[in-house]
Amino acid sequence: MRIAMIGTGYVGLVSGACFMKFGVDVVCVDKDESKIDTLKAGKIPIYEPGLDALVAEGFESGRLTVTTNLAEAVDRADAVFIAVGTPSRRGDGHADLSFVYAAAAEIAEALTDYTVVITKSTVPVGTGAEVDRIIRKARPDADFDVVSNPEFLREGSAIEDFMRPDRVVIGTDSERAQEVMRTLYRPLYLLETPMLFTRRETAELIKYATNAFLATKITFINEMADVCDKVGANVHDVARGIGLDGRIGRKFLHAGPGYGGSCFPKDTLALARTAREVGAPVTIVESVISANSNRKKAMAERVIAACGGSVDGRTIAVLGVTFKPNTDDMRESPSLDILPALQEAGARICAYDPEGMKEAAPLLPGVEWCEGAYETMGGADAVVIITEWNEFRLLDLGRIRTLLRQPLIIDFRNIYNTNEMAAAGFVYHSIGRPEPATEAAPIAEKVG
User: Fold this and answer.
1) How far does CA 349 lie from the centroid of its chain?
2) Which residues pair with 429 in a beta bridge?
3) 297-429 architecture in CATH?
């Protein structure tokens, strides 16, 4: 089979490379010539573990190619995926579908034989119907079907999510289109991956409902962590206690500074907006949006309180700025609220992130970027952990003590054991966990 993937962003490039691995001939299309040139040069414009090797394999095998020529790619394709961006529209929070509709119009002009046009982008209910209308208006003679096939890829583990998904959702009433989609996903069918065939509108809503529910779980455990802080309970034990209930499940019950990224913030906003427009407001989701926004803003106040009520003139070492580990994505990261607030309060920020500093630098002016975790800490008054990269989990605590002016760590990801930190002589603040009553040992004399 041959497919065209319109858009070489996160979803398009990962999906195209994974379909190539299934034995499909894939052409990835993008209007951005510099992005295509970068890919042809063997460089990946995004960070996703394993993607560089997978793309290189595709190029070497000849089953994966990239181009700016949409018409040529569509002309030879059995299926065309629309995988362009749908950012939040400024002003009202609704998904900006201009790129989706522009792609549909271009696809219409290039159609020849029967083609399945698939919306892979995250889109509100009714988008598939509008894509269908756009194509039929431009090409009433064209033979095609429009299908919704939402993605459920997590940044940092997207390839595994594509290759071994929990389910594949396909929205179409056309038996002909269903057969094409079954053929495309046949390798997953052989692994007994559940294939859910629904109406197009249902498939579109499943994507938004999924992300809204996960965002709700995150926000719920974050608020439970606040309760734990007040009553002396441990949010880890609370999460385990409720997560062992099969009706609830363990995943997405990790307290932290709030959710971010490319999906949850914009998808919850878009769902809330759509629901309001159709007269069925999702007030739970609206509350989640508000609570998450307030939480990210409140994290800076936690740092200030831990520093005795003021960070004016203080140096704060920051570990991790991306919204999650194993990605360079800075979209809606809690650090974008926390760091500017600390700077406004008079703090000097020295930060390090294994992959995100290039993306973060223009978004966080005035931050001093360092080459490693320990480099951020020389003479710092406190360490703040925002992103739980694995390399931050086993830092040399003795070395940290010699670097800091005072042994103070504020851990927004709960990656260290409270008792061990107390035993090592640190004043250690985490999220939703009781702090051992102990006095910090004196700071070791600096060497050199």
Assistant:
1) 25
2) 410
3) 3-Layer(aba) Sandwich (3.40)
pLDDT band at 443 (very low <50, low <70, confident <90, very high): very low
Strands (E) across 315-441 are located at 315-319, 348-352, 368-369, 382-385, 408-411, 427-429
Determine the average pLDDT of the residues in 136-163. 96
> What does the DSSP assignment read for 164-219?
S-S-EEEE-S-HHHHHHHHHHTHHHHHTT--EEEE-HHHHHHHHHHHHHHHHHHHH
CB 315 within 8 A of CB 380: yes
The two three-digit tokens of residue 434, written as one number: 């009781």
Alpha-carbon distance 85 to 181, whole Å?
Answer: 22
Classified as helix, coil or strand, 257 is coil
Tokens standing for 192?
């007994």
Residues 6, 81: contact at Cβ < 8 Å? yes
Q: Which two tokens stand for residue 318?
A: 């920051």
How far apart are the C-alpha atoms of 342 and 331, rounded to whole Å?
Answer: 19
Element (H, E) at 144: strand 144-148
Assign domain 208-293 to its CATH superfamily: N-(1-d-carboxylethyl)-l-norvaline Dehydrogenase; domain 2 (1.10.1040.10)
Strand partners, 2: 25
**151, 164, 157, 153: which is closest to 193 by C-alpha?**
164
105-149 per-position pLDDT tens digit: 999 999 999 999 999 999 999 999 999 999 999 999 999 999 999
Q: What percent of the chain has pLDDT over 70?
A: 97
In contact, 421 and 428? CB cutoff 8 Å? yes
Of residues 55, 96, 104, 48, the one with CA closest to residue 322: 48
Cα separation, 15 vs 118, in Å, equals 12
Q: From the candidates 18, 28, 228, 263, give the one annotated as an active-site residue.
A: 263
Task: Tell me which DSSP letter residue 95 carries.
Answer: B
Question: Can you read off the two tokens belonging to residue 122?
Answer: 């995250």
Q: Any idea where the domains of the chain sit in the sequence?
A: 2-198, 208-293, 297-429
For 2-198, CATH number out of 3.40.50.720, 3.40.462.20, 3.20.20.370, 3.30.565.40 equals 3.40.50.720
Q: Tokens 């307290």 belong to which residue?
A: 255
Which of 415, 411, 409, 407 lies closest to 440 in space, CA to CA?
407
- pLDDT at residue 444 greater than cutoff 70: no
Q: How far is Cα 197 from Cα 382, in angstroms, rounded to an integer?
A: 53
Any catalytic annotation for residue 307? no
What is the distance, to the nearest Å, from the Cα of residue 259 to the centroid of all Cα atoms in its chain? 9
Beta partners for residue 377, in sequence order: none
**Is-same-fold flag (2-198; 208-293)?**
no
What single-letter DSSP state applies at residue 234?
Answer: -
